Amino acid sequence: MGENIIKSPSSLQAQFSAIVDEASKRFSESSSERLEDYLNPPVKSVSELENQLDLHNAKFAQFRDKRRKIFDVLAAALDPIEVIGEIVSGAASDMFKPAEGIFGAILYLINGARDVASTYDAIVELFEQLKDFTSRLQVYIKHEMSIPLKEKLTTILATLFEVIVLATKEVRRGRFKAYFKSLFGAESPVKPALEKLKALTIGEERQVIAETYGGVSQISIKTDHVEELVNQVNQNVINLRSEARERTNAAHKDKLKEILEPSPFPEDFFTLFNKSRVDGTGDWILEDEGLQAWLNAETPYLWVCGAAGTGKSFLTTRLIAWGSEHLSHLAYFYFRDNNPETRSVLQALRDIAYQISESDAFYAKQLLKLLRSNDEIKTISSAFRKLLVQPFQEDLREKNIFIFLDGIDEADQDEVNELLEQLGSDDESVLRPDHCRVQVALIGRAHLTEQVTFGLDPLGEGQIVTTLHVTPERNAKDVSSFIAESVFHSRVLSRLSVDFKYEVIEAMDAQVDGLFILAKFMLADIARKRHPNRILQSLQSYPKEIDGMLFRSLQSLSATMSDDDAGDLNEMLSWVACAKEVLSLGQLEAVLILKFGDLPIRLEETLRGQYACFFELEREDGMTTDDLIKDYERKHRLDASGRRSSSARRPSSNGSGSKRRPSSNGSPRPTNAFRSSDTQLDLSRNFSPTRRPKPRNQLSPRGSPSHTPGHSPGRSPARSPARNPISPIRNFSPITNLDLYNPVTEMEFQSNKNTTWVSFFHTSVKEFFNRQDSTTLGSSTDLPLIGFDPTKARIHILKTCLSIFTDISWFEKYDLGEGRDAIREYAAWYWQEHVAAVDPASVPLADKRKLGLQIYKMLTDDEVILQWSIMYEKSNEGLEVLTDDNIEALRTWMSDPDVQASLTPEARDWVVKGVKESPGIFKPIGDLYARAWLSEDFHKYVPTLFCFKIVQAIAFMEEGYSWSRTRTHWTDIPVDQRIRKAANWANMAETAHYYRRLGSTYLTNEMNAAALSHYDKALALDHNSVETTGRIAYCLYKDGRISEALEQSLKCETIEEESIASGKLEGTALKSTKWRLYKDHLLIAECYSELGEVEKALKYFRKAVFSSKETYLSTAESFDAEVSYLELLAAENRYSDIIQFLQELHSNVTDAASDRTRLTDILLEEYNKPMVIDWLPRAVGKVGEAKFLIEHIQTSIELAHENRDPLKALYLRYSLGATYVYSRDIESAISLFEQISFLEYRPRGNVPTRQAYAMAFQKLAGLYKQKVLYAGYQTAEAAEWIKKLERVQIQQSKHHNQDMPLNMVGSDINVAAIYLALFYRLLGRKEEAYPLLSILVMDSLSILSDDDAQNDEYALENLLCLLIAADDIEDARALSQSMRKIDVHLALSNTSSPILQRIEPKLPEIQSVQHSCGQCLDHIPATDEYSMCEYCMDSYCNKCLELTKQEGNKTSDMRADLICRSDHVWFPVPPLTRNLHRAEIMLTDGRVASFPEWKEVLRKRWTIPGP
Fold this sequence. Notes:
Blueprint: H1 9-29, H2 46-56, H3 60-66, H4 69-89, H5 97-111, H6 117-140, H7 147-173, H8 175-178, H9 190-211, H10 223-233, H11 243-252, H12 255-260, H13 265-276, H14 283-286, H15 289-295, E1 301-306, H16 312-326, E2 329-334, H17 340-343, H18 345-359, H19 361-370, H20 380-388, E3 399-406, H21 413-424, E4 436-445, H22 449-456, E5 465-470, H23 476-488, H24 498-512, H25 516-528, H26 532-540, H27 546-558, H28 563-578, E6 583-584, H29 585-596, H30 603-608, E7 615-619, H31 625-640, E8 756-760, H32 763-771, H33 790-806, H34 808-812, H35 819-837, H36 845-860, H37 862-869, H38 884-895, H39 897-901, H40 905-914, H41 923-934, H42 944-958, H43 963-968, H44 975-986, H45 992-1004, H46 1008-1021, H47 1026-1038, H48 1042-1061, H49 1067-1090, H50 1094-1108, H51 1120-1131, H52 1135-1147, E9 1149-1151, E10 1156-1157, H53 1158-1165, H54 1170-1183, H55 1186-1202, H56 1206-1222, H57 1226-1240, H58 1247-1271, H59 1276-1294, H60 1311-1322, H61 1326-1344, H62 1352-1365, H63 1369-1378, H64 1384-1388, E11 1426-1429, E12 1435-1437, H65 1438-1445, E13 1466-1469, E14 1480-1482, E15 1488-1490, ...
Parallel strand pairs: 1-4, 1-5, 2-3, 3-4
Antiparallel strand pairs: 6-8, 7-8, 9-10, 11-12, 11-13, 14-15
């Protein structure tokens, strides 16, 4: 190390000035604030700062005498800055500008306190944190600093400015009075900035320690190594979050869910197993001595082990169900090996943490305190420490946390070993306080026993692990109960005698040997038999172990199928066994077509029937085969009884039913505790892979098709010498000459092929086919072979995936229908994993050479690279295009001598060199996307963000980084630095196009200032470019500079219109101009709307509607203009205009063959948006045009069924019901919502499906409430409606949706419970009302305490209704008035408090739409008073209230034209005439109170036990 040299004042000035200037630039780029605002007047020293404070605040001097502490700490923090200023400015009279800027910012902060003592105390806290850093800074600038230290100091000072500005804003807003015990409390935006500052200063301190900066003048140039050491010391704490993520996520997403990213799997699997479990089974485990010892915390770990198929998951579910009622804190996860997420131990830890946070508020707070992003829990060890150790270290309460991890044998075994290492470690970093015990139960197969016990108790100390064996003897009674329940509910055996059923039960009991899985296979085998004697014979000879059982199933199937059928089955078995992700039904059909050339008939029916011994099918709505069959049977019974089912198919000439199916679906019969289909093993899973949308559709099966004369709808005849050698149709359905009824052969399921997943029903089936060549197992030589060689299957699948992209002519010749895109997506996403799964040494030479050439083409051919890699853009997964494991596998293949020998000499030389370098053979991918990103010669559009992610990863690989490090350590490197790095690596000509694309990259990362800077550079190079001006306009709009954006957009419109009118444009140029003109019209309309110029906005929305017809738009954006126009009309109460526009849309026919119009297209596309489910129904109800909309909704529902998209049908049926409600057709609305809520509802399906059902529950509850009030709540008729309301409340609460996105939490509240509490109170049943209200009030208050601002609207609306139901009218009135939009004219005239002159208060802006009158449906202006009915819980304008109060409108008068009644009670809600701060609420006496304090009073009131 060199000599420590003190620098001269001039060099000091240069160094310090450079640091502060760079910090200023960084701050200004990420903020609308300007540091220059703090430089007037100039402040040069701490004493001048005090003088300025005295001048600005007359009372400050007096306060200073009383509170001298602020000046003491101020001096300590700022004296070093003053000294620096003196050093660098010397004898000059002018103060050093950077130091002056800091003093100015501090002055601005303290002036904002406005004499409030608590604020000064908070400021003292701030300076206490700053003083250590500023004193160190005084030392640093005297020495030569390394680049890393300069970077840290620059970032720290930028963050310092950010802290000061945020703190000043909070002070000036008076936020401390409302939200925080101190200025920097948990909900303050200052706190994240302070925590970032703290993390940065810790990093800075340790950087200096590493470099020994106190007496060293020169540092080591190995800063990368130092960074790694710092990261290890900091335990992977992220120093600086990306600006884009920070601004976006902090304001709009709940931090806890954002960080943990919990999955829906635990609840879905629990619901599935709990539903399928027979009552009473599994109870024996609760009495087990070992389990009781673990529950009593005598040992920390429980190991539950057993063989495959012994029902371990059902036992786990029994324990979880019991624990949910008896244990305070419980969490669980089910591992399954057919999905990356369900294999992940890391995902399990996140899910467990999230579940614990739901039952332990202190734990949740600790997580938020410890974690700032999910980057901190990217590894097992970090997640274990951060989630299961550190949150408990400050917890003083005694508690036990019980964790159940089922199926660890199906989890990633490397991750399991890491988890065991963490659990068994005695290192202090993973130790919790003795009073906080985490009890972990691991459930898995017995072969892991040694691994688990050694991992948990490496020293063999004993009293660490309790082992519980699940043996056939212990669960024999459970299996017998399962068999009896299944046999007596078997559809196949339903017509046979009870004695015969007992014979079947005895035969199965004798064979199953305590194995649930064997019982399931035997039940599936029964379904294939057609004679009672054969059933008994088969059962009595059934094997008693799993492999033998599978051999038996293969032999049985082989004896009943043709060669074609066997070939199809083998292809499906190999793909399902070897696929890297669960395949959709559409993908499975596609691979069969690619193999055999045509599509099997009735494939889904065969999979659910004949092949249910292997496969299970799972739909996104959660409907099992059993559910679908029961729906079909119910409709069949209705049709047979002479009643036309509401969903009956219309006849058609082609014998396949109507082109459309109506909107109503059938209902299942009530089910028992255990439900089992004879042909479908009910083990469905709700998979949500990250690379495709979650399952989302629901559809009842169609009726059986008409039979063609001379052709049976059943499968083709079994193999026989006498059979017809010519088979015109490859048929895939079971035998049809049944002597036992089987509805699977009588119906078509018609599931959505893209959202129905096919997998093996049990992991043991997949293991069986993957570990051996099953073709050697079974059939005699004269029967078809069933099975496959795993190695050959993997090679075949790899060839198929590669050929899809390298042999386009081969792929294009097949008519794959909807499966085309689905199988291309799979091949694009997983071809690399299939390469990794095949060892080159195991591949025959010819295949190896062919595969080598295909892989080489996948990595080097631009067109091929683009074809497969662009598939990742659909989910914006540029960072997922490659992985470290796949990179290594591809290098292994390209290093193989046989592969290299198959290449041309030039290609071979390139490969030999490339496999040794980084990025080497992957550089062509980076080169392609560099051109796609920044070159004007690349003519195919690829989004800038996607290109940038790939290019920056390749650029960092060239410097020695791994691909994964650029992804998992994304926030280690600021985004702007990544962009500059990637652009330099791309090395493209700096044209106008270059700067436009760079600007768009900054814009997509929400770095608007940088984006505008690059757009300006583009404009300078291409002055008249309307493309650049249009981007500038959009950037200004995103930045909130609406007037400027409007000015630029109008210029663009003029230029584009003149260009089109000139007639000189054609082809691509003309199309591009028309597209830009459409975008101009849309942006101009949005600007006018933001500025309140409604007529101009409507005019330009209409222009956008017209111009959209002249250009090509994607499906996602094709209705933007129409929807925006309708939304603005709805907001302005212009209902007649809405109807007129809907009629225009109806006249625009888009598909005459199916009666599709622009209106039906919009209804189908926007099916779940407020416009369709509320605004349009409200509009037609208002003007009496309900019939018009009802007809189009019904048409859209039929089209949705026709397209196999029942999720759309479900939401459209909700819209239909809403239309009935607004048009006062209450009976039709009740009938529809009862069918949805009671007959069709299933406690499964994905979030959108569950949300739709929750909305239906809420609407039905509102209708029942209305019926109670119409009848008079004290009447006998009302009592019956209250009973129905109770049924709704129970039905919804039974399966409450736990997977709601955080921004929607509260939207699915159990409204029926609120209405019941109201009526219970009115009827004097307060002891029943209080528990209902208490839970929901506390839930609403909890939602208001989270970090997600978007769900506050739901919570506050719910809280308002709860307060009314509880008869807390004073608080209800205060809340309802404070939530009103501000009466701007009156508010601006109120100058009683300058602090209150804010245009953006929180509560008045919380509602997304204005209140509307429950009677006339009009929006109520902010200037008008309205009233809320304490019975209806609805708003009424003064005009309608007068009508309501008139004579002849008592409850007993039964008027149908009015909603409310004159004998109800109302409270007035005056206009809000006073601007409110965030976190302020105006009380009924006009005083402004703290909203947090108001909430706390409510919280305390509702935590006290009720009556």
